[in-house]
Specification:
The protein has seven helices and eleven strands. Helix 2 packs parallel to helix 7.
Length: about 250
């Protein structure tokens, strides 16, 4: 049975199997969050032995990667619950963010510098909204070259950063809803509901291509990975503070 998120009340519960909802900060990788928790447990927490009196190894992993330039909901599992990661990351995702029109980037976001000067005079909230509707339903989506997809035994972004040609095949995804919330100064804010594995960066790139203009993602926040919501998430600092208090209570 899956426990309630962030419901652990002791170090033993946390180590044995806890479901954590974390609000990932800007600039951190998903692995940064996992490693921060690992490091804190290693250097600060005294892990109780198992029922046989043997030492236990602390396990922790995340369910669904977020790019460093994205913020928001990161689902993390500890202990025995790490076996449920595949199941927990399969839920429908929701994102908010913004897309700039008029320039593209190789990474489809701000990891790389904007380039080019594409026409934007024909763009308004109606044309952008119509283009967003086209990018809904069941799609074959080409992942960005700057992605963690495996190509010839390595991460695609490593080859892309070396300037090598990366030809990732399109993959089936489902975009349930792509709503344009506003359009001003060649920038659109959005809310997207989609399946696991959907690259919002690719949607941000493709909408500009479909409109005869360049575009790239300028901000991204995951607000939900159903059935979980970022409103119920802890900050990294809040989690570590809570663990520290539980350790002091147990000492």
């Amino acid at each position: 049975m899956i426990p309630q998120p962030n419901s652990f009340s002791s170090i033993d519960e946390f180590v044995s199997g806890a479901l954590l909802l974390i609000d990932k900060p800007l600039g951190w990788t998903s692995f940064d969050v996992v490693n921060k928790i690992k490091g804190f447990v290693k250097h600060t927490i005294e892990i109780p032995p198992n029922e046989q009196g043997h030492d236990r190894r602390f396990k922790v992993g995340h369910a669904g990667t977020l790019d460093p330039l994205a913020t928001g909901l990161l689902v993390i599992c500890t202990g025995a619950l790490t076996k449920q990661i595949d199941h927990l990351q399969a839920g429908i995702k929701e994102y908010t963010g913004s897309i700039a029109f008029g320039q593209t980037t190789p990474s489809y976001d701000l990891e790389t510098a904007p380039e080019g000067a594409f026409p934007t005079e024909h763009l308004n909230i109606d044309t952008v909204t119509t283009a967003a509707r086209v990018l809904t339903g069941e799609l074959l989506q080409r992942p960005p070259d700057f992605s963690a997809k495996q190509v010839a035994g390595q991460r695609a972004y490593k080859a892309a950063r070396r300037g090598e040609q990366v030809n990732l095949p399109p993959v089936p995804v489902t975009v349930h809803d792509f709503r344009v919330l506003s359009f001003e100064s060649n920038s659109a804010s959005f809310h997207i509901t989609c399946s696991k594995g959907t690259y919002i960066r690719s949607l941000a790139h493709d909408i500009g291509q479909n409109l005869g203009s360049g575009s790239h993602l300028t901000a991204l926040r995951r607000v939900a990975s159903h059935p979980f919501h970022v409103d119920d998430a802890l900050t990294v600092e809040g989690l570590l503070e809570r663990l520290g208090k539980l350790q002091n209570k147990a000492s």
